[in-house]
Specification:
Rossmann fold, seven-stranded parallel beta sheet, two-stranded parallel sheet, binds NADP nicotinamide-adenine-dinucleotide phosphate
């Protein structure tokens, strides 16, 4: 389903996170949009974007309602979440409060004021027994994070017909003051000639954050509805990703040792044979997602430009 976008006023939550930063950069560069960035902190971490800023904690129902009523957005893009998978397993209450209650607050007000709600979810809604998955595959989360994100999808669905959910996985990229991600950590280790143990049995796509932001941008402009997978265009193991990164960056591949997920004893179980089939997004949003190699080449250029490598 699609139609021409009438969206002009865009409210972004979690704007100080990795995805949030790329989303506000993309939308505020387009003069058709009036962007209000919101995040938990007092200030916006990015200083090169032309958009408004308000502090907003999505767990505060009253604050969400007041701010949304004041700004009257046409669409809300929710980039706020508790994203640390193991922390979600050990701090379940905090996880549910942010990932589920927070989304319910956004969904309720979106439904009441006829606002499109754009939300971001994960391949962790699947059990990883038979990936890669299409959008309509049977969900069965095995971690608390996955359960909370599935519940967040359901809260979004409950907001009415005008919702858009992007499921993504292994998102990487360079942000300003954001927490580390798999690729950033790998670069730091390999650059310093430190050995790393990388799992060979977690299979899926890796996603350059700019591609995910672009999918959201096209989804809003084309005014599509429903669930879309949005992730890098090829599938491999984390180990394959690490080796490809070493090749693209010119680091020593011998520093990378293969291990199995079970040996890491992480609090949260991981879906192993996962992955997201992105044909629907590519066909309906009219965009191409980067391959691992293309994404890593772009990532390397960004790190070089920032003087980090
Ligand atoms: N990163 C991945 O590999 C990945 C994979 C699949 C799906 N996703 C999904 O993609 C979305 C974006 O993730 P990301 O990679 O950009 O993660 P991120 O960098 O951790 O960004 C999430 C942001 O949400 C903020 N936040 C947390 N609680 C909040 C609250 N109560 N109110 C307002 N903001 C709050 C965080 O602030 P603090 O840091 O200060 O808490 C952080 O800035 C999330 O929905 C995530 O579940 C990510």
């Amino acid at each position: 389903m699609s139609g021409t976008s009438q969206f002009q006023r865009i409210l972004v939550t979690g704007a100080n996170g990795l995805l949030g930063q790329k989303v506000i950069q993309l939308f505020s560069r387009d003069s058709r949009f009036d962007v209000l960035a919101t995040a938990k902190g007092e200030t916006l971490l990015l200083d090169d974007v032309s958009c408004g800023y308000s502090s907003l904690d999505i767990t505060d129902r009253k604050a969400v309602r007041e701010l949304v009523k004041n700004f009257e957005p046409d669409a809300i893009i929710n980039c706020a979440a508790m994203t640390h998978v193991d922390k979600c397993e050990t701090e379940k209450e905090a996880c549910w409060k942010i990932n589920v209650d927070g989304v319910r607050h956004l969904a309720e007000i979106s439904k009441a004021l006829d606002i499109k709600l754009v939300h971001v979810s994960t391949d962790y809604v699947f059990d990883g027994k038979n990936g890669p998955y299409r959008e309509d595959a049977r969900v069965n989360p095995i971690s608390y994070y996955g359960k909370s994100k599935l519940a967040s999808e359901n809260e979004t669905l409950a907001s009415g017909p005008d919702f858009l959910i992007f499921r993504t996985m292994v998102v990487y990229g360079l942000g300003t003051g954001t927490k580390s991600n798999f690729a950033i950590w790998l670069v730091q280790q390999l650059k310093d000639n430190k050995p790393v143990n990388i799992v060979t049995d977690q299979i899926g796509n890796s996603t350059l954050v700019e591609d995910l932001a672009e999918a959201i941008y096209h989804g809003v402009i084309k005014n599509v509805h429903g669930i879309y997978n949005a992730a890098g265009s090829d599938i491999g193991s984390r180990f394959d990703f690490a080796v490809k990164l070493a090749e693209v960056f010119g680091y020593n591949k011998k520093l990378i040792s293969p291990v199995l997920t079970a040996s890491l004893n992480q609090p949260a179980p991981r879906p192993l044979n996962s992955g997201l089939i992105i044909l629907k997004a590519e066909a309906e949003l009219g965009m191409k997602f980067s391959t691992t190699e293309e994404g890593l080449i772009r990532f390397r250029q960004q790190l070089k430009q920032a003087g980090l490598i």
